[in-house]
Amino acid sequence: MCDMKPRTGLSTTLTQTTTLSPIQIMTIKLLELPTLELEQRIQKELEENPVLDENIQNNNTEEGTPKKVSLSEYSASDPTPSYKLYVNNHSKDAKPQYNTFSVKESFQDSLIDQLGYRDLDKKTKFIAVFLIGSLDGDGYLRRDLQAVSNDLAFRFQIEASVEEIEDVLKIIQDFEPAGIGARDLRECLLLQLNNKSDSESKTLAKTILTDYFDAFTKKHYDKIMSKMGITQEELKDAIDQIIKLNPKPGGQLDDSYIEQASQITPDFTLEEIDGNFIVSTPKFNMPELKINKQYAQMLDANPTSKAEKEAASFVKQKIDSAKNLISALKQRQNTMLSTMNAIVDFQKDYFREGDETKLKPMVLKNIAEKTGLDISTISRVVNSKYVDTSFGIIALKSLFSEGLMTEDGKEVSTKEIKKILQESIEEESKSKPLTDEELVIVLSNKGYKVARRTVAKYREQLNIPIARLRKEL
Fold first, then answer.
1. Which residue in 46, 219, 267, 465 is a FRET match for 205, CA 20 to 30 A apart?
2. What proportion of the chain, given as a percentage, has pLDDT over 90?
């Protein structure tokens, strides 16, 4: 395990100073950037600063010639050691490029394509395109049709009644995926049922959605059976039809085969070698940076003309900017690795297996104390950063949680309690789900003393409904 104390970094004394150096300010900004954004920032600097070069390891490659300036030489008056004129932003071993998500066709694009196969007049087609553009990410039209009519009139001078717009909406609702263009969940499910083959269970399902939707959502099954005069088996077959439907048809395209723009790329790689954890930062398209030597050698020239003096000032400014960037990148690298090593050291048991029950309670202050860095610095490192482990890519923020005491005095992470809670609910009888009060007893029997309101809070955070809504036939 590496030494936890950073040789370079943002110390706790930063919060006590009134002013920060340009390098410190730049380091703070760079710490906030995840890998892909940092890569883009470096590329931007390479494009905008002519004295900044990529450090290409090739003995046959000559030093790049600087862009023409009005000075013949520029050498040693700046006593900057050569090691401060370049930076390596990643580990020695190049890591393979991780797959990132690409943006493909949205469900709106698919609907526009399907619209092209319909023989529609110009006005109808315009309204259809407007409606498609008004659908939300789940594929629903959440707007009132009168509001749509008003918009068409005021913005595009197109007069269209609510009835006309509804007729156009029905055309869209006939498109794939089924359920698209619905105005609420009930309509969405009914549109999908209409596409299914006729059967007794389909007919019962449509009746339930049409006449007993509120009772269905609240799982008042006895009331439905009584009102409809059907058996429990018939109700079960009808519900089986409904639960197979997609409540978010717009997400069907996006989630199943169109991965969106949000790219998740690991900022760290964690490997266990001979029982020891090795933390590194993967190499992507992150160039090593250096200052062009021929620019650096121009610092001892004696400019005489106005043009030469202006060129000298320009080069000096760009070299200072480049050195600040290189130094800030070094500090970022040291701070990132120091923080990640401290997190791994704190959570060794978890990182060996990926078992969330092994997560120790950990807050930002714990890592700040281990590294000697400020809490705000740790927060910047952790935010929007990911680590690639043997059991998957993990968000660093997910490793932090408060803790509770067990009955035997052991401090455990809230994540551990949530995991036990989720497992208890998964193992319950679905015909008689556990209430929050009963879950308190279950957790207590397992050694976790938790109040009912805490159980309710954790259950909601896990997106698990109350007992009555978990009931199954």
1. 465
2. 32
